[in-house]
Structure to design on (348 residues):
């Protein structure tokens, strides 16, 4: 046993003093010490001569010696890889190419949102953003939604518990119209804004609908703004967005905040109007709602409806993105699965 201890000490000394550098020296070290005929194997073989009562202690010593040798080998290899020169200093190879920085990709909702916004920016619309947690006035009351309007129903709106002493009802905005109300309240006219953002509705989540989604809304208020201005603005949008061959139709509709109100359809850009699953065989796809801003809404924001008129419109972002990119489940947008996200590039 004493012999073994002395031998291991001598070997350790030898290992510590090993002075070779570079890959070849490291390999020679490995063969000499850790190879199948190396010295570690050799001393391990001496276990069989150790008396039974000392085997435990000898085992520990040998194990420790093996780890010591492996650590020294790892050290030599690392130094060799770093190109340790004669002086022992690492000499980096400055001619090697640098590590590539991984690039992310843009989210499909961002891409579609940008595509929509940029068309209106070219017409002189500015982008305005507003809060997602909103009070009852900016989300409903100012927009001419009477207290018992169905859209205020608990089923459609997420209310925020702001405590018993809250002076007003707080909620997650159900549309980005709150932002236009805030712009109007600033009292600076004319107004020409586009309002993108996330909105919330208390709906069951499925492949087709989610409890949050994205909208882009627009508002134009000035003297003498007419329905003809609304139509020409939206015609321009449709041409830029879906191409010059797409046909457009307006259907009368109803929104509390616009009068008159309409919904706009485009001839199906999937089947060209022949009839398919996307247009439900009608040849038309609804893309947005619009109308002339209701005089009550102007008045609620301190704008004289006798002097000013305006138009507004609103559209969802998810559906056009799903059609453009062939996405069949709305939930994919918010699951953040990298395999999904990395498929989209900045090229629209
Ligand atoms: C103000 C006055 C009027 C915005 C409008 C629509 C019609 C509309 C929907 C389209 C699909 C929402 O995402 S969607 O579910 N929107 O149909 N939105 S007019 O009208 C306004 C906005 C602000 C001050």
């Amino acid at each position: 046993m004493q012999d073994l201890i002395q031998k291991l000490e001598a070997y350790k000394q030898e290992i510590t003093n090993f002075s070779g550098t570079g890959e070849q020296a490291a390999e020679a070290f490995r063969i000499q010490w850790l190879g199948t005929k190396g010295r570690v194997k050799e001393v391990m073989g001496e276990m069989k001569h150790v008396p039974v009562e000392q085997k435990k202690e000898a085992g520990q010593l040998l194990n420790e010696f093996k780890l010591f040798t492996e650590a020294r080998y790892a050290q030599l290899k690392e130094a060799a890889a770093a190109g340790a020169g004669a002086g022992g200093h690492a000499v980096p190879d400055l001619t090697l190419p640098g590590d590539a920085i991984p690039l992310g990709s843009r989210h499909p909702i961002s891409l579609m949102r940008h595509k929509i916004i940029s068309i209106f920016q070219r017409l002189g619309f500015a982008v305005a953003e507003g809060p997602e947690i909103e009070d009852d006035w900016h989300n409903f009351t100012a927009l001419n939604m009477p207290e018992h309007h169905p859209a205020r129903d608990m089923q459609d709106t997420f209310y925020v518990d702001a405590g018993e002493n809250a002076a007003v009802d707080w909620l997650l905005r159900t549309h980005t119209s709150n932002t236009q109300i805030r712009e109007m309240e600033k009292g600076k006219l004319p107004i020409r804004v586009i309002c993108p953002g996330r909105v919330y509705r208390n709906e069951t989540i499925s492949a087709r609908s989610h409890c949050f989604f994205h909208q882009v809304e627009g508002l134009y208020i000035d003297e003498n703004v007419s329905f003809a201005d609304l139509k020409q603005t939206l015609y321009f949008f449709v041409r830029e967005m879906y191409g010059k061959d797409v046909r457009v139709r307006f259907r009368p509709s109803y929104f509390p905040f616009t009068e008159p109100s309409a919904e706009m359809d485009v001839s199906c850009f999937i089947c060209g109007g022949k009839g398919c699953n996307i247009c439900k065989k009608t040849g038309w796809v609804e893309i947005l709602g619009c109308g002339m801003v209701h005089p009550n809404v102007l008045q609620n924001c301190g704008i004289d409806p006798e002097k000013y008129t305006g138009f507004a419109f609103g559209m969802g972002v998810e559906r056009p993105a799903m059609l453009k990119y062939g996405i069949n489940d709305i939930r994919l947008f918010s699951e953040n699965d990298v395999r999904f996200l990395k498929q989209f590039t900045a090229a629209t």
Q: What stands out?
A: Residues 2-81 form one domain. The chain has a mean pLDDT of 92.
